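Hey, quick one: can you model this chain's 3D structure?
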Amino acid sequence: MRVIIQHGDITRIATDAIVNAANVEMLGGGGVDGAIHRAAGPRLKEACAAYPEVSPGIRCPVGGARITDGFDLPAKYVIHTVGPMWHNSPGCRAIHYPGESKQVGKPRDLLASSIASCLTLARNNGVETIAFPAISCGVFGGSIVTFAKVAYEVLSRPEYSVHSPKWTNLKEIVFVLFQLEEYEQFQRTWSILT
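Sure thing. Here's the predicted structure for all 194 residues.
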């Protein structure tokens, strides 16, 4: 499996699937979520709204993922995932949304779950190429360095190895960073890890 890191706009990437850093309602928002919804057109919101709520106001819990068509995007699919919000303390816990107070976990573990959930949906839907934005960064408070480290850790697990029969279809993962500074930080971190 090939990993590519690039600076750019994920809404213009022609991979089989792109990942949306969504919120629990899955109805659009700010940042990359809003950009993906605008670029995909109104049918994306309709497809997201068709997912049943697992609890009031929550279509996708933190650490989970859901898949829709890409509609007006170059990508065939959008895989929506909800990463954790972060505090600025060492042993921080995730901030959750109303109706989700019983589901508490460490942000790092929930971020790993988000990434793994996206990869599982990719595998189950025959996706060969997938692009990730910086999940849980920006307004969610996570750092690019932590995102890079957690992504590397998930991709280093035996079940995601190129030698695993489960992942024969996945050929390329692209990490797309919109801000130049984020791209440079991610690339530096990834090169140290690899």
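One thing worth noting: The chain has one domain: 2-193.
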